Amino acid sequence: RIYPLMRVTLTTSDGASVTVSRQLTKHSGFIEKAITDMAVDDNAVPLSAVAVDVDDATLKLVIEWLTEHRDDALPYPEKTDEERRADDIPAWDQAFVQKWDTKEDQQQTLYAVITAADKLDIKGLLDMTCKTLANKINGKTVEEMREILQLECDFTEEELAEIRKENAWCEN
Amino acid sequence: MKCKEIADLPPEILTLIVSNLSLNDMLNLRVVSPWLNEFMMPVIKPDTCALTFLDLKKLKNHLAIIAEMTDRATALHFIDMLAISSSSTKARTKEKMKQIQMTIPIDRISHVDFSFFKSARIAHFRVAKILPFTLTVAHLKLLRQLLLGCTIDQISLFFDAATIVQIFEIPSLLIAVNAKHAEFIVQNMDQRDLLEYFRTHEFLARLEATDVKELSIGLTTLSILGPVPGGPIESETDFEFIKQVINCGITKITMDLEGCERDGFERFRLLPFIRDLAVSSRHVE
């Protein structure tokens, strides 16, 4: 596959190769560092391939997000705990993530993109996907949280009672 | 390896995700599964227990504590105490403050190395005026043990005729809790002579070794019942005492010696005295 302004070839964990523009990869701290470590002229064509520990399907989603956000300002603005809010996800990003809801493994897709954003050091994508998962949990009951996170309740009744008693100390 | 479930996410990413949640959501996550409970506890519980005040009372066979905090999650620092406390414990939220009241049987803690917290920052530790924890030798030893690991900005202690001799042991307690403001109150107003203990060279020398910068001494409860306006200075001895305290490194003194408003208070002597202090270039209030 070829993306506009071919500059960097990425090889995925499952053996695929993808060539993308430096305009996109500049948002990835991992890829930019790999290119810097190659110590090659920025204009050299082609660059040696950069191996990324992300599978082909997930990398496609990452590149789709990067293409939409190619003109975002860098560096990504750091926010304090007070400034951070989960309800400021841009409309395009919300639609981008909602597309996965039709997939059977939508939760795994979200985890895969979160992990890829972390490995590739793409702060904007990591921030957005973490907020997306937080928003799914936000305000839900314990049972709903278990269902969303696909986790079993492995507590004994006594353990549950103990934790609920401890939590009561902090609740309003 | 493909991430198949939330448990596969790196801990720092999980921390990032849950940092977007409210405290109630984080508490609910504890109940979801054992590994999430284990993960969430250190995320929710602040490293240090930060209290706006901690009051200590002595009941017949119990200690009663009242603690107030701004961060509700701080209440998790009291969980270990729940195991030893008696049934009369309660937590309530008043406006933005969380308050916890707890009674602890003394016989359960006096023979073990029990301390209130592993690490705490207390803005004001107060021995209550009503039902005070009197500072006998045994109680002072217990107080040191209870406050182990605490940093206290202001500490308020009561003394009476039986416990005033313990004043010489207090500076080492002030050092242990890194106190910046010490407030010493004599229990009964008719025991003015007990104030002489604060004027002794032995006490002042020990006070100098502490980090205390603010000292309050009085015959009433001072800031506990509200600050007394003005600095009542009654006699030449008081003027001399203030000078001695300032030489110990104290920069703010509050004295309530029950004499400010009476007739004959020699205000004309106060101004020259303050001017005299000012030329020493110290910040004295």
Concise description?
The complex is a heterodimer of chains A (about 170) and B (about 280). Chain A contains 8 helices and 3 strands; from the N terminus they run ββααβαααααα. Chain A has about 170 residues and is mainly alpha-helical.
Describe the secondary-structure layout.
The complex is a heterodimer of chains A (172) and B (285).
Chain A: E1 6-11, E2 17-21, H1 22-25, H2 29-38, E3 50-51, H3 56-68, H4 91-98, H5 106-119, H6 123-137, H7 142-149, H8 157-168
Parallel strand pairs in A: 1-3
Antiparallel strand pairs in A: 1-2
Helix pairs in contact in A: 3-5, 5-6
Chain B: H1 11-18, H2 23-32, H3 34-44, E1 49-51, E2 53-58, E3 62-69, H4 79-82, E4 90-94, E5 97-105, H5 106-109, E6 120-127, H6 137-146, E7 150-159, H7 170-176, E8 181-186, H8 201-208, E9 214-218, H9 236-247, E10 252-256, H10 267-278
Parallel strand pairs in B: 1-6, 2-6, 6-7, 7-8, 8-9, 9-10
Antiparallel strand pairs in B: 2-3, 3-5, 4-5
Helix pairs in contact in B: 2-3
CATH overall fold name of the largest domain in chain A: Potassium Channel Kv1.1, Chain A
Secondary-structure content class of chain B: alpha/beta
Residue windows where pLDDT falls under 50 for at least 5 positions of chain A: none
As a whole number of angstroms, the C-alpha radius of gyration of chain B is: 23 Å
Count of distinct strands of chain B: 10
CATH superfamily membership of the largest domain in chain A, which one?
Answer: Potassium Channel Kv1.1, Chain A
With helices defined by DSSP (H or I, 4 residues minimum), what is the helix count of chain A?
8
Overall CATH class of the largest domain in chain A: Alpha Beta
Number of domains of chain A: 2
Keywords (chain A): Ubl conjugation pathway
Pfam family, one (chain A): Skp1_POZ
Organism (chain A): Pristionchus entomophagus
Family (chain A): Belongs to the SKP1 family.
